[in-house]
Amino acid sequence: MDKITNDGRYTFKNVLLETGFEYDGDEVVKTKTALFCVEIADGKITVITPNDPALDAIDAKGWLMLPAFKDMHAHLDKMLYGLPWQAVSGQRRTVKDQIAYEQKMIPEWLKTSIERTEKLVNFLQSNGTHFIRSHFNIDPTSGFESLKHLEIALKNKERTVGAELVAFPQHGLFYTNTAPLLKEVVKMNIDFIGGVDPYSIDGSIEKPMELITQLAIDHHKGIDIHLHEAGETGVKTIEYLINKANENPVLRGKSFVSHAFALGHLSPLEAERMAARLAEAGVGIVSSVPFGNTIMPIPLLRKHGVEVLVGNDNIQDHWSTFGPGHMLRKAKLIASLYGYSSEWALSRTLGFATRYLLPLDDKGNQQWPKAGNEANLVFMEASCSAEVVARVSPVKSLVHKGNIVF
Fold first, then answer.
1. SS3 400
2. Is residue 345 pLDDT above 60, yes or no?
3. Is 294 helix (H, G, I), strand (E, B) or coil?
4. Are residues 193 and 138 part of one domain?
5. What is the CA angle 211-213-219, rounded to 5?
6. Could you tell me if 78 and 108 are in contact, meaning their C-beta atoms sit under 8 angstroms apart?
7. Are 284 and 308 in contact (CB under 8 A)?
8. 124: pLDDT strictly greater than 70
């Protein structure tokens, strides 16, 4: 763009920003906005000034500027996106059925995984996502190839997307002798160690969880385990991680349970107790927001201060056909499931798409953007955050660390 200088400095004009709430008594009835100019340099927001329509700058056309979205649970290395359409097969009913299928198909998928990962990143970006926590398979079939291919794809896209990586032993740690590989991959440039259903896959809660937590402690990594088990073993696995985080403060704020379906099947009293324990231990929950037989107690978790991250998880893969690849659709699902229909509640729900970075605080004070913030921006055709969530408003432009993606 000719409005961008050689040193990467540029300015947006006609940028719509939220400035506060309008009240009727105690109720928020409207979100106030105004137009501004926003200058970007060195990947950061440097100056925000009253709007000057005559300025020689990139025209934001009155679009609403919001923090760009973060998908906190994806599998960029392992999906069918970019291959011919294929719905989920009813022949594979258990996780172990899926493991057998993956052992057969992974060598074929790896042949095109780099280019398909880039296509999937493009798709997520088109929906306003600029940062992704991606799990990658580590197992005897994949070896380190899933990680290598993912790293190549992300390197090719590094100007426009950020990522953190989770080593994911999808095929179990001991069920398929993956433990030696996990001990090696943890020495590489990854951020988290994962796991999956320790009891149902490996036949033990303690043995896999002890290995995962000790590797995380020894190598200064985070933890993010998949836990689909909905009964007693699911609860005990969550409690195991809570206890480990309490014993080892280095795990606080860096330990997560993805899915954690067991929480959706507890009595109200048990759920309260577990939410309090998770918050006290600094253990977070990552959810793809299931519904049907399992409704996660997200409002209860948030009430207790548990960090609840949200991601798309499956996007056209052999596990699920329906992943939208759109963080706003996840936010709208949360609003629908839990009755967040007011102006104020909808505006707060946007935080599930942005990892809680919001233009206004709970009282309506403007807290974003500020000079010095990273320029991770999404421009929406909407009047305010509440409308963005309720209507899943169109994404018009995305900026990652000052780099204009589109």
1. strand
2. yes
3. coil
4. yes
5. 95
6. no
7. yes
8. yes
**Contact between residue 113 and residue 79 where contact means Cβ atoms under 8 Å apart:** no
Q: Indicate left, alpha or beta for 17 from its phi (over 0: left) and psi (-120 to 50: alpha).
A: beta
Q: At a CB cut-off of 8 Å and minimum separation 6, what does 1 contact? A: 10, 58, 404
* Whether pLDDT at 239 is above 80: yes
| Alpha carbons 206 and 161: distance in angstroms, whole number | 37
Phi, psi at 120, each rounded to 5°? -65, -40
Once rounded to an integer, what is the mean pLDDT over residues 74-97? 85
pLDDT at 1 over 70: no
Residue 385 belongs to domain with CATH number: 2.30.40.10
Domain that holds residue 175: 70-325
Number of Cβ within 10 Å of residue 89's Cβ equals 11
User: For the chain, what is the radius of gyration of the CA atoms?
Assistant: 22
pLDDT tens for residues 160-218? 999 999 999 999 999 999 999 999 999 999 999 999 999 999 999 999 999 999 999 99
* Pairing assessment for the beta strands 162-168 and 129-137 based on DSSP bridges: parallel
Handedness of CA 107, 109, 115, 120 (dihedral sign): negative
Structure-token pair, residue 278: 């998770």
Q: How many residues does the chain have?
A: 406
Tokens at 310, concatenated: 């949200």
User: Could you tell me if 34 and 143 lie in one domain?
Assistant: no
What local confidence, expressed as pLDDT, does residue 6 receive? 67
Claim to verify: residue 219 and residue 367 sit in the same structural domain: no
Same domain, residue pair 50 and 142: no
Query: What are the phi and psi torsion angles at 405 (to 5°)?
Result: -75, -45
**pLDDT confidence band for 231 (50 / 70 / 90):** very high
Could you tell me if residue 148 is left (phi over 0), alpha (psi between -120 and 50 degrees) or otherwise beta? alpha
Cβ neighbours of 117 (radius 10 Å): 27
Number of domains in the chain: 2
Q: What is the CATH number of the domain that holds 239?
A: 3.20.20.140
Tokens for 20? 């506060």
Q: What is d(CA 287, CA 333) in angstroms, rounded to the nearest whole number?
A: 12
Q: Within this chain, do residues 58 and 75 fall inside the same structural domain, yes or no?
A: no
Residue 87, judged by CB atoms within 10 A of its CB (0-12, 13-18, 19+), counts as exposed
Do 90 and 139 sit in the same domain of this protein? yes
Look at strands 69-74 and 129-137 and give their pairing. parallel
